[in-house]
């Protein structure tokens, strides 16, 4: 696990590594990249959700996050016009 402790901890998961408490990816951008999360916070209302560093996404790359349906894309038109049911 990645931590901010003084000890150096290394792990390898899908080409990612952790050194000095920072998670880095070799080629693709990490889903929990601090810079990516910061950029997402610049326009929080645009997305309808808030980015955060969740441990379930550690070691995942941005492409995997999009494929795992993290809510990054807008829903299809049919899904966006659904209204809640009202009890009568």
UniProtKB/TrEMBL annotation:
Q: Which gene encodes it?
A: F26E4.3_1
The protein's name in its UniProt record: Putative peptidase C1-like protein F26E4.3
